[in-house]
């Protein structure tokens, strides 16, 4: 019996997506009592972890930098699904949810994941090393996307408030897709070697030596389970969305905290993956994950919510406030100074983490 339980425990990444689908079928369209909300939340968190695990299996099969791209896109699909689900149920009060979640993702990836990765790698290997050419291009794309989609709406005059007009929203959505597509082509085809990890001697590492790549059959199996996990995440999130919003309101915190919770939930497993890579002295992989996720979060989420806004009730507010624009500007300046040398010490990691702490503090107490 104990042996069977241990075997089941090792297969949790297979069992949890299936359990999520079963639980989704039992709870769909029903008001959930407190204890059931707790159960759903646990399975939801497990589904996120399982989804990222299977994305990592597929990523390992296809190799870098395709692996980081697969993981970033999978995480962003989860994020988009959660945002649209909560916006559909939230009405006008959820008009800023997409902006808050995307900005939270940018701050968590560019400061949290980058900071933790640099700190872990530099503490273990004295100095964290990476390629400034590829990382710099990724950072430039993130900066452009963030400015076009999150800063400019605050200053446009076609509509009252931090909103785009219809034509402006279409332009920003198309621009986001074009820029993201151009980056993916650069990362995976034309300049793939710029996004590969490098050794201490500056030699590009074009093979993953920490484990044998999974077979095609295993990768396809993980791809199917990844789909189940994503469906479970979307459906279960809809079931607990009202509880999340009511909990934030009861605690007296701003609505923006809902976006922070979503981003933290979705990006925590990816943070663990980046940390693992950093401890193995593969900081470039960690930065690919961090900046790739920030880029995908804006480049895929904004077009998705732009399309959804045509059938969702209420306005779509994308423009950041003054405080968040200051934090974004500080993040981009510090990130540029971090990336240019291609090397980092614990100081740079600590600086990024302090900026993230400031963002969380100001999100809770604006």
Overall CATH class: Mainly Alpha
Category by helix and strand content: mainly alpha
Helix/strand order: HHHHHEHHHHHHEH
Number of helices in the DSSP assignment: 12
Strand content: under 5%
Radius of gyration: 20 Å
Q: How many individual domains? A: 1
The rounded distance between the terminal residues' Cα atoms is 53 Å
The neighbouring-strand order within the major sheet is 1-2
The gross shape turns out to be globular
Largest sheet: 2 strands, antiparallel
Let me know the CATH homologous superfamily. Answer: NCX, central ion-binding region
Mean pLDDT: 83
Which CATH architecture would you pick? Answer: Up-down Bundle
Q: How many strands in all?
A: 2
State the helical fraction.
over 70%
Instruction: Enter the CATH topology name.
Output: A middle domain of Talin 1
Which residues sit in consecutive blocks of at least 5 with pLDDT less than 50? none
Entry summary:
InterPro entries: Alkaline_pH_Ca-Antiporter, NaCa_Exmemb. The chain has 366 residues and is mainly alpha-helical.
Features:
366 residues; mainly alpha; A middle domain of Talin 1; two-stranded antiparallel ribbon; 12 helices; 75% helix; potassium:proton antiporter activity; Ionic transporter y4hA; membrane; transmembrane helix; Alkaline_pH_Ca-Antiporter
How would the blueprint of this fold be written?
Elements: H1 2-10, H2 12-27, H3 34-62, H4 66-90, H5 97-125, E1 128-129, H6 132-151, H7 166-190, H8 216-250, H9 256-279, H10 283-308, H11 322-339, E2 343-344, H12 346-364
Antiparallel strand pairs: 1-2
Helix pairs in contact: 2-3, 2-8, 3-4, 3-8, 3-9, 4-8, 4-9, 4-10, 5-9, 5-10, 5-11, 5-12, 6-7, 6-10, 6-11, 7-10, 9-10, 11-12
């Amino acid at each position: 019996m104990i042996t069977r339980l241990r075997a089941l425990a090792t297969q949790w990444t297979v069992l949890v997506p299936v359990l999520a689908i079963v639980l989704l079928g039992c709870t769909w369209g029903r008001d959930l009592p407190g204890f059931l909300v707790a159960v759903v939340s646990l399975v939801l968190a497990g589904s996120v972890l399982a989804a990222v695990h299977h994305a990592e299996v597929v990523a390992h099969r296809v190799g870098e930098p395709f692996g980081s791209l697969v993981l970033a896109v999978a995480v962003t699909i989860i994020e988009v699904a959660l945002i649209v689900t909560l916006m559909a149920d939230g009405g006008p009060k959820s008009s800023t949810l997409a902006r808050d979640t995307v900005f939270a993702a940018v701050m968590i990836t560019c400061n949290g994941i980058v900071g933790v990765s640099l700190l872990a790698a530099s503490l273990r290997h004295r100095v964290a090393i990476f390629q400034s050419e590829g990382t710099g291009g990724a950072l430039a794309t993130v900066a452009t996307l963030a400015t076009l989609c999150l800063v400019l709406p605050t200053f446009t005059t076609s509509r009252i408030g931090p909103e785009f007009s219809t034509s402006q929203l279409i332009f920003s959505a198309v621009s986001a897709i074009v820029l993201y597509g151009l980056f993916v082509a650069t990362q995976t085809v034309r300049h793939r070697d710029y996004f590969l990890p490098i050794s201490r001697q500056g030699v590009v590492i074009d093979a993953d030596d920490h484990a044998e790549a999974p077979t095609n059959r295993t990768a396809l199996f993980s791809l199917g389970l990844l789909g189940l996990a994503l469906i479970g995440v979307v459906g279960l999130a809809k079931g607990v969305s009202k509880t999340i919003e009511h909990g934030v309101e009861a605690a007296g915190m701003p609505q923006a905290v809902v976006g922070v919770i979503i981003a933290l939930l979705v990006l925590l497993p990816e943070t663990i993956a980046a940390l693992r890579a950093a401890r193995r002295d593969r900081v470039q992989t960690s930065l690919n994950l961090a900046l790739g996720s920030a880029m995908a979060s804006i480049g895929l989420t904004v077009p998705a919510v732009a399309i959804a806004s045509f059938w969702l009730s209420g306005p779509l507010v994308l423009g950041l406030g003054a405080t968040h624009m200051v934090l974004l500007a500080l993040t981009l300046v510090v990130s540029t100074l971090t990336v240019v040398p291609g090397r980092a010490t614990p100081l740079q990691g600590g600086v990024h983490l302090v900026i993230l702490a400031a963002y969380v503090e100001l999100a809770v107490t604006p």
